[in-house]
Structures are given as C-alpha cells and as structure tokens.
Amino acid sequence: MTTLADKNVLLGVTGGIAAYKTPELVRRLRDAGASVRVVMTPGAQAFISPLTLQAVSGHRVHADLLDAEAEAGMGHIELARWADELVIAPATAHAIARLAHGFADDLLATLVLATEARIWVAPAMNRVMWASRPVLDNCQRLQTLGMRLLGPASGSQACGEVGEGRMLEPDEIVAALGDHPRPFLGHRFVVTAGPTHEALDPVRFLGNRSSGRMGFAVAEALAAAGADVDLVAGPVNLTTPPGVTRCDVLTARDMHREVMARIEGATGFIGVAAVADYRPDSVAEHKIKKSEGELALRLVPNPDILADVARHSARPALVMGFAAETRDLANAARDKLARKQLDLIAANLVGEGLAFDCADNALEVFSATGHWSLPEQPKAPLARALVEIMVDCMASKGG
Ligand SMILES: Cc1cc2nc3c(=O)[nH]c(=O)nc-3n(C[C@H](O)[C@H](O)[C@H](O)COP(=O)(O)O)c2cc1C
C-alpha cells in the first residue's frame, strides 16, 4: 500500500475530459495519507465543478490568480511553498505547451514557476494530439525542466478511438508518487532500445519493426528503482522517461560505439534494442535507380554489442539480452544465453500482432538455472517485473 503520510499534494486540474476522474484521484491521495488542495484552470471548470473537488478535498478550490480574497488567505506563494508534490492531472496539450514555455498568466502556471515541489504531469488527450510533434517536443522540454511525466497510458479513449494518450488511472498516479524501494540506488545501467537503420543509399535503409517501447519501459523501471540510466536509443518516436539520460543513434555501429563508451563502471547492461545483424557492405552515394534486372545486395555482419559487452574487461555484473524469435523460443533463448555468456535473457515470440510495435507483450526469462514466465501485459508493468528479476539475479550473485 502506497503511503503519502504527511505529504502535501497540490493537484492541478486542467480542461480535459479526464477531469471527471479527479474526485477519485483526490480520494485515493487522501486514502494514502496526503493532504490535498486543488487548483483548477478556467478550462477545467467547464468539465467538473469546483464544489465537487472542494467536497472531496475538504478545502476551498483555488482557481483565480488575481483574487484579492484568496491572496489574503492562502495566497499563491504560500500555496507554492505548502506543496511537497504538484501533480497536474489531467494535463491538456494546451497546459503542457504553457508550462513548457514558462507562462504565468493563470494560477496553475504561476504556481509551477513559484514552487520547489516535485512536479508531475499526467498528459491526457486524443491519441493523434498526443503523437503530434508540438506535444512531444513540449513534453521533452518539460522533462529537461525537471518535471516528471506520468504516462500517458494506452487504451480506449473518450473520443471513441483507441491508442496512447489516456490519463493514468488514479491508483497508478498515487503509486508513482508514493515512496517505493530503490534497490538500484547508486548503480548505473546502460540500456539500448529501438531498431537500427542500416543505409543502402541516401534515402533507403534496412530496418525492423521495433518501436523502442520495451527498451524505454525498462529504462523507466530501472530509473524508478533508483538506477542512473544511460539509454542508447535507435530511431524511435518516444519521449525520454524521467531520470533517464538519452543518446540517439542510427546504425548498429553507432550503437556499439556509444554503448562501449558508457560500459566502464556500469552495474548492468540491458540490450533491448533490435540491432541489425547485417548491413549493406557499401552505401551508394546516390539513390539506386530502378533497372530491368535483379538487384543483389551484399551484406556484412555488424558488431555484436551484447557479446562484446559480455566479453569486455570491464564487464558489468549483470548482462541481459532480449531474443525475438518466431519459433522454438526456449531452445533459441537458452542457446543465446550460453553462447553470448549472458546472465539473463528475455525471449518473446514475434510476428502476427505480437511484441513488435504493440503496447502489450509476454516474456519468458531465463538464467543459467532459472526460468520466469511473465504473462501478456502492458510493457510498463512487464518492465517492472523484469527489474524485480534483475534484483533477484544480482542478489544471487552476491551483488
Ligand atoms: C469536450 C472536450 C474535451 C476535451 N478534451 C481534451 C483532452 O482530453 N485533452 C486536451 O488536451 N484537450 C482537450 N480539450 C481541449 C481543451 O479543453 C482546450 O485546449 C482548453 O483550452 C484547455 O484549457 P486548459 O489547459 O487551460 O485547462 C477538450 C475540449 C472539449 C470541448
């Protein structure tokens, strides 16, 4: 059970449809022991009444910046000082844009600038809005400003569509705020994610269907477990999880170089990326023209990042790989575990709507002596389960 005892939580509600979930969120926060005060944007008040949030929080709702009566009571600076945690849920695309650019023309935006509390932002919007470049850029900026993103989740949306952009459920938000064990505090992990692109000519490449979501979820779960995380990411369209340092690369050779530059002193290496095994032996200087006959490609092997990390003189204590297989999962995974001298391998079947570019996944995890079956579930809880296995594996090595 999450505890927020003695925490002052200021909840900022903005004008999205998910505002209807905020009375439940206030109740869950209070159940966890927090004192809760609520700030609403004018837009939020079109979706839910301040009276409802006053009733569930036990305090008058704060809504106006230029309100003489409110300033005479708990003014905006006192409110900013009072908060230990400022949670903006739901956070609309509009609110995210305003926060990313330091606006101070309503109470919530001004509080964000005036507080030293940890700031959490739970985006909630239609999936196409969420995937839009301005929203993704603004979220990236919030993170560089030290704000923590909560979600969003995937699923059915109020607009009738299905996709990424739903606000996290109230209990997930409360759990993210709560104190949780940090078994990897003081440890650094290097994680790879996404595909690699191997150029054929200036416009074409060999790639694969990896979305990077599993690797990003693993990086996020490790950071939540207290680790310093270096994430080396292939070409993906994802925001960097809170507390994670990201380096973007394109090719397997770039990824190999950036991983090797970070491996010394790392406790763990988690190779989630779907790295191309081969690349074209040469990259055409100009676009390859269509011609009548067949076109043969000659491929040469790429460096093997996992095997090189596992053989490195500064080998991390924990080296974990992923195996995407289309058949004979257990044998292929165990073979790769032994051949590449890994501590753990997480294997999944791919193809036919499985794993690649999907929100959910199922994994079979193997060590030399152990086997864990993780049933199909969203990638975030799956990644947290993997981190628990990593903790067990380190403990069994005496690390
Ligand atoms: C019915 C309805 C539902 C909306 N839901 C959302 C939403 O879920 N997310 C979002 O970003 N904007 C949504 N909007 C648009 C926002 O209400 C609008 O951008 C507003 O300016 C947000 O103001 P605020 O962020 O200052 O509260 C919705 C608008 C309407 C009319």
Structural write-up:
The chain is an alpha/beta fold. The protein is 32% helix and 24% strand. It is built from 14 helices and 19 strands. It has helices at residues 22-31, 50-57, 68-72, 76-82, 93-100, 107-114, 127-130, 133-144, 170-177, 213-224, 252-260, 305-311, 329-339, 379-396; strands spanning 8-13, 35-40, 85-91, 118-123, 148-149, 153-156, 162-166, 188-193, 198-199, 205-206, 228-233, 244-248, 268-271, 278-280, 299-301, 318-325, 344-349, 360-366, 371-378. The strands form five sheets. It has an eight-stranded mixed beta sheet with strand order 12-11-8-13-16-17-18-19, sandwiched between helices. A five-stranded parallel beta sheet has the order 2-1-3-4-5, with helices on both faces. A hairpin with a 5-residue loop joins β9 and β10. α5 (93-100) crosses α8. The longest helix has 18 residues, at 379-396.
> How many independent structural domains?
2
Give me the side-by-side strand order of the main sheet: 12-11-8-13-16-17-18-19
CATH architecture of the largest domain: 3-Layer(aba) Sandwich
List ligands, each type once.
Answer: flavin mononucleotide
Beta-strand share of residues: 15-25%
Let me know the largest β-sheet.
8 strands, mixed
Task: Classify the fold: give the CATH topology of the largest domain.
Answer: Rossmann fold
Cα-based radius of gyration, to the nearest Å: 24 Å
What form results from the Cα inertia axes? globular
Number of strands: 19
Gap between N and C termini, in Å? 28 Å
CATH class of the largest domain: Alpha Beta
CATH superfamily (homologous) name of the largest domain? CoaB-like
Q: Number of helix segments?
A: 14
Helix content: 25-40%
Which stretches are low in confidence, meaning pLDDT under 50 for 5 or more residues running?
none
Let me know the average pLDDT.
91
What class do helices, strands and sheet pairing give? alpha/beta
